[in-house]
Amino acid sequence: MRSGIFAGLLLATVSATAAFAQGAPIKLANVAELSGGGATVGNNWKNGIDLAIEEVNAKGGLLGRKLEVTHADSQSNPGVARAQVQKALDNEPYVLLGPGYSGSVKVTSPLAAEAGIAQIMGGEAAELTQGGNKFLFRTSFGQQSSMPKVAKYINDELKAKSVAIVWVNNDFGKGGRDVITKEFAKYNIKVAADISTEAGQADFAADVSKIKAAAPDVVFVYVNEEESARMLKELKRQAITVPLVGETTLVGQKVVELAGDAANGARGHVGLTTDAPVDLVKAFREKFVKKYNYVPDHNGLKGYLAIYMIKATTEKMGKVDSKAFADNLHGLTIKAASEPGILMDVTFDEKGDIDRQGFLVEIVEGKQVVKQVLPKLN
Amino acid sequence: MSNLLDLLVAGLATGAIYALVAVGFTLLWQTSQTINFAQGEFVMLPAFLMLAVMHAGAPFWLAIILGILLSLLLLGLGFKLLLVDPMLRHGVLPLAIATMALAIGMKEAVKQFFSAEASPFPSIVPAGDVSILGRVVSLQSLGVLALAIAVVIGLTALLNRTSIGHQMQATAQNPTVARIIGVPVERMILLTFLINAFLVALASLLITPIYLAKFSSGEVLGQAAFIAAIVGGFNQVRGAIAGGLLIGVVDNLAAAYVSTQYRAAVPLILLIVIILFRPQGLLGRPEERTV
Fold it and tell me: What CATH number corresponds to the domain at position B264?
């Protein structure tokens, strides 16, 4: 009788524990640039994550469990990012989200890999996914994918013979500058001025004077969002009229907001834009604007997509297993038809790089206008 | 040569703004021995005050007026009464440290209550270009330069040609004697705090369209203006003006002809050279303060 009661209690305890585990929230950790030079990047990324989590939870969660995220501020500083990631990993999250800055990703990715936790991040530096880290995943194109498209556009469409390159002296900027310089060499485009700038730089008068003196056919600008806005204003102030070409960081929503009229005419390749002629992206934009009262840039999209990458991969596995997560995301194709939150069909390769359609855009009267859709490769 | 002209115009325009801020440094030091390490943040805040007024629906011109008035109240009167007066009796160093704490507090407060992200800020000078010596020069650069020079000339006239200016100078040179001869010393000190608040509000209005409104934008400005004040002469308004213009030009030339990475070091090297060979600054005079 006594042993029967004990067995009954044990069974009840095990059942209760199992039920609790089944219903316990899935913990995610986000470390992003919530202040400092990358605040635009980090806050868009964070808001995208929060929006997606709200949606997933409203529909019953992931495999019946709610998603829960903690946000930590890297202050746009790689040293702080590393400390925050270590702290986040100590709490054993299912997946680590962020950071957005390539320099911060570079110093934090070994920590996540060592812990065996998948890291979905916003960095775009080419080298990030070239080092054999099996736990690192992009949310947008790396420079090795985007720069050849930009160089081809400058050669084929703008017929440029010389170009001034303005880049920010950090991992992101240097990586982009190195890749595009090689691409320009393939087309015999001369680099008339090679100008490095500092992260957080406020005054670009001297840099633009150098560009003016070099008289290039095109100016290629590859600095972060706030610096892009200051650069565009200074280029306008000094009456530079040649085409200004860049990547997402030159033609993003925040840049347009900050630079005002000076952003008009800027062109660039973007992997993600809320102006994309894609119905699901338009719907995302509406939801984001409704919740946050501003139009997100590509970082908002990246954060949103990161959560749906987790959802699609976990549903494919049929279980919440942080150790198996990375293996299952490698080689995975997620179709927007089956998972609308992913917005556009996407494939992840063995390095964690992505294949998805991209866009060539131009800023016209303060708005991104998609000039060309570049299809998904495979 | 043409490139040099561009650099000089841009450098003078930035330098003129540094000069406005540096003049505030010297005024506060001369009248109340206050070294305000929050001076950069004092430039940052008025832009946010103006933005807050605009967000409330006011037009830009009204935001400028209210922003300047609020600056006079907070950064002039409030700063003196709530921080300088209670701290100064404990010496210059505790006050200097208190202003450092104030700088951190102001940055964090703006980050907390406004945003950590940069915000656009309208320019009072219209966009456009004019041709000078065959070179296209932006109206904004010229406008900033002209306005800053006008304010500096006005301030110099106030100090040198008016009774109030003479009383302020007397207060700066020897407050005890000034008090004996009937100068309302306390009122003159308060006036310098209000003038400083006006200057930083004006500097904010001129620089923020270029640097964007951001909680951290005062860091660079505060450092540049502090260096300018020392290089020019911490105890002379004309020294601060010269120092500001010089630092603006040197910074731009260094970025163009030395390197962007080392541009921040060049004004500091200039500062070291000045301290070694002319400690009172280019236009300063050796301290004659009695103990």
Answer: 1.10.3470
